[in-house]
Amino acid sequence: MDEQCYALLIDADNVSAKYIKPILTELSKYGVITYKRIYGDWTNTQHSSWKDELLTNSIMPIQQFSYTQGKNATDSAMIIDAMDILYTNDVDGFCIVSSDSDFTRLVTRIRESAKMVIGMGENKTPEPFRKACDKFTILENLLSEQEPGSTKAEEPHDSLSKEKIEDAIIKMIIENQDDNKVTGLGEVGSRLVSLYPDFDVRSYGYNMLSKFLEEFSRIQLIKHGNLVSVALKEDWGMKEDIDRYVVYLVKKAGRNGIELSTLGNKVYEEYADFKISDYGYAQFNQYVKSIDRIEVEQEGTVLKAKYKKGF
């Protein structure tokens, strides 16, 4: 399989030279870098730290004078070059390195042409630019990975709380269970990036997704040889207690059974921590149906749980 080719475009106005080696190392994981360009006003002394890196790493500097005070000419030059490269159709994707949200529309336009876009920027990068990319990587994470003890990303973005990530993974597992499919570790990783382009386990102090997932209380990793799948961590002791309680309530209700809504209220009152999603079910009636001695019947608009005959 041929390697993917990428165009690397760097906004020198918004990115420090200290990140260049981590940037090149990270992008090399995706494919070959065929274009390496950096944009800025090189007469400006604030870009002096970049000059040694340009020759060392074979990066082409693009000079862009600041014609008007307050206007960012660098952005315009990057956008024009990106579109020219896009029209040549000789790359498979782009890496846009900037902490500036002004490139959000450019990223969207490139993706409309079925090209992958990897974004890289500091932790301060606005959310619109992050979300526009196929994959967004925080530069502080790359630097801390290569240079232990250096400044790390301040903290993961609010939208990427661990609880939200765990909920998303549980939803994936339940969806696959409905289709009788196993949820692979690789699938979890790719789907998390699709949902949250700025998701990166390095933001949480891990180098491997598997190690990060071991932290969660509601999911578990299952290994079959070289294959690793992700499944719900079921507290079977608690489930057996709940099953017995449901059977008790339904049997106590007699021949007419008990309305499912009433049954559910009683179960949640007795077991405050009970979550049907922990056992692979999206609805309470599905959970009740899984209990051997119970059946669910519809009477008019009401669902009732009844004790099966013969038990």
UniProtKB/TrEMBL annotation:
Xref: InterPro entries: LOTUS-like (IPR041966), NYN (IPR021139), OST-HTH/LOTUS_dom (IPR025605)
Name recorded for this polypeptide: NYN domain-containing protein
Ranges where the HTH OST-type domain occurs: 161-234
Pfam families xref list: NYN (PF01936), OST-HTH (PF12872)
Domain of life of the organism encoding this protein: Bacteria
Gene3D superfamilies in UniProt: 5'-nuclease, LOTUS domain-like
Originating organism: Sporofaciens musculi
GO molecular function, one term: RNA nuclease activity
